[in-house]
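Sample pair:
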Amino acid sequence: MKVRLSPYNPDWVNEYKKECKRLSELFGDLVIQFEHFGSTSIVNMKAKPVIDMLIIVKNIDKVDQLNPYIRELGYDIAGEWGIEGRRLLRKGGEDRKHHIHIYQEGNGEIDRHLIFRDYLRIHTKEAVKYSQFKEQLAMKYQDTNEYSKAKRSYVSELEQRALEWYKKEKGHL
């Protein structure tokens, strides 16, 4: 897929809320919590215009039983897609609009995503630097696979800083 990097769009929050409503109707009381994360959840950050959503559920296996209905909502089902215990749903094909990451409560990936998001929301200078870095990469790489690989080590370092910040904030150091 081609890299599409857009300026922050406040409508992304509305798109997130609309999709929460649709998915809430499908998943019902299986859902514990919805979260908007990723670059579209960070004010003023440039982002691929794909809404990343996290759904925390009571039982991940019950999600799999809903696959026929998930497809009816226009999602393609990617399974774990490299992260054990996750269910990844994608909507929009080549013009992707949503990535839904579903985890069972207690999965450590939940904290990783939310700590990273919260860190960037609070540390706006870090968010600006990250946004600028993504712009540079988008000019260099046209394909999302190459773009994602090129930013991997930067994101890893940023995630480490976020985790250290979180531990310090929570008094775990």
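The chain has six helices and five strands.
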